[in-house]
Specification:
Helix content: 40-55%
Main location: periplasm
Subcellular location: Periplasm
CATH topology of the largest domain: D-Maltodextrin-Binding Protein, domain 2
Distance between the termini: 23 Å
InterPro entries: Bact_solute-bd_prot1 (IPR050490), SBP (IPR006059)
Pfam families: SBP_bac_1
Organism: [Roseibacterium] beibuensis
Oligomer: single chain
Radius of gyration: 21 Å
CATH class of the largest domain: Alpha Beta
Shape: globular
Bound molecules: beta-D-galactopyranose
Structural class: alpha/beta
Strand content: 5-15%
Number of domains: 2
Amino acid sequence: MTMLKQLQFTAAAVALSTTAVAAQEVEVLHWWTSGGEAAALNVLREDLSGQGVEWMDMPVAGGGGSDAMTVLRARVTSGNPPTAVQMLGFSIQDWAAEGVLANLDELAAEQNWGEVVPEALQRFSTYDGSWVAAPVNVHSTNWVWANTALMEELGIEQPTTWEEFVAAMQTAQDAGYTALAHGGQAWQDATIFDSMVMGVGGPDFYQASMVDLDPEALGSETMVEAFERMATLRGFVDDNFSGRDWNLATAMVVNGEALFQIMGDWAKGEFVNAGQTAGDEFQCFRVPGTEGTVTFNSDQFAMFAVEDADAQAAQLAMASAVMSPEFQIAFNLVKGSVPARTDIPSDQFDACGQMGMAQLAEAAANGALFGSMAHGHANNPSVQNAMYDVITAHFNGEYDAATAAEELVTAVEIAQ
Ligand code: GAL
């Protein structure tokens, strides 16, 4: 902790700074480049611009954050880190361990972050007892997004078991539609894998395999079955899935070209951005087999320690804006996620948002809330990337399910 630099400015300086004339600037590295994501980010940009803080945009397209983290590493290596960076879970912890993140404790104490940020997020926002990141949201990843008109046309009821889910996709495929909209990118493959592991093995198995990295669980028959389900899903994806961006896959459901997409609730941001309403043109439900559990991730902004006083004040203005209740509502309505504070009423959120908030609280109370492996909240980036490689190789037919489970054991062992 001694390596973390203490920011000298407090919220008082933030207030003072708002009168300064355009001297302050944040350079923000992020991967929010889809329509819904950009609209959500704009809420933050406008908030800061209203405070006289200039926004220097550093977007890295690709979704899921893998490419953004590569760019970040290059920027830090060349001695020129951005001032604020979108980060997920264990990445925050890795950067904090390198001693390069700013300490936000004073602001956090003034604004009582410790009281309002759920424990599951604080585990990532704090390092060695100090605040190093401000959480913007909680996303959950075990959702199915469905086109209502297509379900009605095909006579499909909301599936509640894996068998019903497969039967629904078969119906869509037989009728000439794409059953499952998917983009063949490692993080997207991993996103659906999270739900297959949870769906087949349940919470204890998810914990043992994805979090505890128990080799027996990783190589078990249960894991083989999770891979078999991945192969089943692969059979419902269209021929052009390879490399497709996640939001283009969402657009296929929005347009009625595809029946379902398994994706985190950032997908809702795309439906909303297209003018659609939850429960009306589109439906959301938990991936069959994962009901009662929630796999989550939380986007957080970490600040890189800088010497310049104006830059520090801008960083604090941004962290302060991110944590304000008004912002958390405005942003998350657009983003598809739910607030990273426990004291926000759910009444302004749509049907999926309200369901998400209730299920998150319920899962947290029941010990059924787990960090998403695909989104960096179950294990560290090197293990995560090792898992990505095996999952994607299997999804593209390189291994059968039994070999994939064996490869997973080996890859995780090497990566640790
Ligand atoms: C996730 C991130 C979301 C969303 C998604 C697709 O990792 O938490 O906010 O942006 O990637 O880009």
